[in-house]
Structure formats: C-alpha cells, structure tokens
Design a protein that fits this description.
The chain is globular, with a radius of gyration of 19 Å. It has one domain (about 5-234). By secondary structure, the protein is mainly alpha-helical. The termini are far apart. It has 7 helices and no strands. Pfam families: Urate_ox_N. This is Urate oxidase N-terminal domain-containing protein. Keywords: Membrane, Transmembrane, Transmembrane helix.
Length: about 230
C-alpha cells in the first residue's frame, strides 16, 4: 500500500470533483425542479396556496439552490486551477479547452443565481410576507427570465463537462484553436446574458424559452451548436 490516496495531489483533485458532483446535483436538480415542477404548479394553483408556498417553501428551496450553486462554482474552479498547477495547458489536449467552456457556462449560471434570481426572489418572498410595498411583478419577471436562461445553459454545460474526458474530439489542440473556441463561447454567452438582463416577457427573444418545452428544446439546439463549434474549431 503506497500511502493514503486522499492525501495525494490526485486525492485532492478527487475531493474537489466529489464536492462538485454533490453540489452540482443539488443545484441543477433544484434548477430543474423550479422550472419544470414548481413554476407549473404556481401557474395552476390558487392564490392562497401560492402565497403560503412562497412564504414557506420557496425560501427553503432557494437556500439549497443558491448554496448548491456556490459550492459547484467554487469546487469546479478549484478542479481547473489544480490541473493547471499540475501542468494542464490549452495545447496539451482537449480537456482544458472544453472544461473551460463548460466552466464559463457554469460561472454565468452562478452569477445569475446570486445576482439576478436570488435578489428578485427576495422581493417576491418579502411581498408574500407583507414585508415590502415594492411591486414584485417586475422582479419576478426578471428572475423568471434568468432562471429560464440558466435552464437553457444547463444542457450544453453538462454536455461540455461530460465531453471533456469522455468524448474524443481532438488530441492535437493548439492554443490558438482553444482561444478561438473559448472566444466564440464568450460571445454566445454575452448575447444570452444581455437577453436575460434586458428582455421582457412580451419580447420575441423570450418566447423560445418561455415554456418548459421551449427551454428544453432551445437547450438541446444550443448544445448542438456548441458541439459543431467543438468539431470545427478544436
């Protein structure tokens, strides 16, 4: 027996990955619950039930949701930094380029959770409890759009996370190719995020992701686009 595996550099990487898995399951699971289950229930239930759920259920969901996002974000970047310290480069294979692509999507999703969705939902919850006179409708609409945006991004994000180690796209990636791919990803994310922060429920740019079916379909379309970019640019 050659020492304790968890006390090695690779063991540390494994711990980061394990935390990433645990937190990620909590985060993305609750993201999909909010969008696929809770939202539909709130749209169909009576006002009194919705008010009670907003007061008592939603805060509990959002606590696990936002901290799941935080620990997923932190552990993910710890994994990437660990591998860079141990020699991973953009020209040493496909892993770093693809995982950074997924990391960019995940980081934008984390930003939306903490700086768009959670602030909006705090107003909605306070309104349901009678603790604020601010009209919650605009905040709720912005939170919905950001939540739908995160659901859209979650599908290609998970694809990239899985593809980095398990889908052989290119063993001979140059730094220029990797930078081009990541630059295009940043451009796509900029467009998506501008829409999340500026669109309104009535706008044409919100329509494709307004419904559950629409956001799932759009997520797979975006995933296909990113896969084509992987094949073309790496």
């Amino acid at each position: 027996m050659d020492g304790i595996a968890l006390f090695t550099s690779q063991g540390l990487y494994f711990i980061f990955k394990w935390i990433h898995f645990l937190a990620g399951v909590a985060w993305i699971g609750l993201l999909w619950y909010i969008n696929f289950v809770q939202g539909s229930f709130f749209a169909e239930t009576d006002a009194d039930t919705k008010k009670k759920a907003t007061q008592q259920l939603v805060p509990r969901v959002l606590w696990w949701f936002r901290w799941g996002a935080m620990f997923t974000f932190l552990s993910g970047w710890c994994m990437i930094i660990h591998q860079i310290i141990n020699g991973a480069t953009l020209s040493s294979g496909q892993w770093l380029a693809i995982i950074l692509g997924g990391g960019l999507l995940g980081s934008l999703m984390w930003f939306n959770v903490w700086f768009v969705i959670w602030p909006a939902q705090k107003v909605v919850i306070a309104s349901a409890k009678g603790e604020t006179t601010e009209n919650p409708a605009p905040r709720a609409a912005r939170g919905l759009l950001a939540s739908r945006t995160n659901t859209l991004l979650s599908i290609p994000m998970l694809f990239l996370m899985g593809a980095a180690r398990n889908l052989s796209i290119s063993f001979d990636v140059t730094s220029a190719e990797a930078h081009t791919f990541l630059g295009v990803i940043l451009g796509i994310l900029a467009i998506v995020e501008i829409n999340a922060l500026t669109a309104i429920p009535e706008s044409a740019s919100f329509k494709p992701i307004k419904t559950v079916k629409g956001v799932i379909t759009s997520g797979f379309i975006l995933c296909l686009i990113i896969y084509v970019l992987l094949e073309a640019l790496l």
